[in-house]
Design goal:
- By secondary structure, this protein is of the alpha+beta class.
- It is globular, with a radius of gyration of 19 Å.
- It folds into two domains: 114 residues, DNA primase, PRIM domain (Alpha-Beta Complex), CATH 3.90.920.10; 172 residues, Alpha-Beta Complex (DNA primase, PRIM domain).
- Strands 5, 6, 7, 8, 9 and 15 form a six-stranded antiparallel sheet that branches. A five-stranded mixed sheet has the order 11-12-10-14-13, with helices on one face.
- It is built from eight helices and 15 strands.
- Strand 11 and strand 12 form a beta hairpin.
């Protein structure tokens, strides 16, 4: 068993320790498998995560061991890792492949990023609806509600992109002109959430207390806010299947799927075959105005 080795990535020498350690035991995914995944998916992962404040969840002994959140750059980090200080925290910026490899070696299994770029701290690049099922085994409810929200967005002339959380939920991204504050996007998010809950009271709730939600889907309009995060597109999650937060098509939402369908083992093949559906956010950068909607809800 190899205990450690070094290799060079983009001019930086990185030491990989315990490459054969199982991080996702049930899926038989080792640390080396994970690092290979990060390298292969780097063009797609970095296209969104670059220049965003990173919060990671570390699992030094795999997904069944103890875990902890990491925001501050650790003292032992390489000097070349890009960072940005915001509110007294020195955040890592996942801006290149060497940084991803270094994070992988630290067993940072989940990569959560801010809604804004670090140099535009008050201006999110999109509006995001976070759909969180109370019954984690009822993903069909998530898909049904997502389609009904899409009808609302379509009626408003807004294009959108769905993405699995990689766990039990789904997020809907609406690209915006980067000039709206979090206060403005929060007000619209809350309005759409309440409208959806009022229109489909048997399906949707905005109730924050879990015990009061019953089996309804929670439309979390609060998660989209300053200093908050969601899993980056193509970030793995600490689930036994090695599932990945994956952009999907609205047609796939209509047909149906399980969030466990998309894993570290098959997402690269999916992107190779079907393409990266998150290009709406990262390459095409559809810039949409919500001026009229904000005026309407005042």
């Amino acid at each position: 068993m190899i205990k450690e080795f070094e290799f060079e990535v983009e001019g930086h020498t990185l030491r990989i320790t315990n490459p054969e350690k199982l991080l996702w035991p049930e899926a038989e995914i080792t640390k080396l498998d994970y690092i290979k995944y990060l390298i292969e998916m780097a063009p797609y992962l970095l296209s969104y995560a670059k220049d965003r404040l990173l919060t990671t969840i570390r699992y030094p002994n795999g997904i069944h061991g103890k875990s902890f959140y990491q925001k501050n750059l650790p003292a032992h980090a390489p000097a070349w890792v890009a960072t940005h200080v915001w509110r007294d925290t020195n955040y890592i910026l996942a801006n290149d492949i060497p940084t991803l490899v270094w994070l992988g070696n630290q067993a940072c299994l989940e990569l959560h990023v801010s809604f804004n770029l670090y140099y535009q701290p008050k201006l999110p690049t999109e509006l995001v609806f976070d759909l969180d099922p109370t019954d984690v085994d009822n993903f069909s409810l998530v898909l049904e509600v997502a389609l009904r929200i899409k009808e609302v967005l379509d009626s408003l002339g807004l294009v959108s992109q769905p993405k699995t959380s990689g766990a039990s939920g789904l997020q809907i991204y609406i690209p915006l002109e980067v000039r709206y504050t979090y206060e403005q996007t929060r007000s619209l998010n809350k309005f759409i959430a309440q409208y959806t809950a009022d229109k489909y009271p048997q399906l949707v709730t905005v109730e924050r207390l879990v015990k009061n939600r019953g089996t309804k889907l929670y439309f979390d309009y609060i998660q989209h806010g300053e200093g908050r995060t969601l899993p980056a597109p193509y970030s793995p999650r600490a689930r036994k299947e090695g599932s990945v937060s994956t952009p999907v098509t609205w047609e796939e939402v209509r047909i149906g799927f399980s969030p466990r369908d998309f894993t570290i083992k098959n997402v690269k093949q999916r992107v190779d075959k079907m393409g990266d559906f998150f290009v709406l956010m990262t390459k095409q950068k559809a810039k949409q105005s919500i001026d009229q909607l904000l005026q309407f809800i005042k």
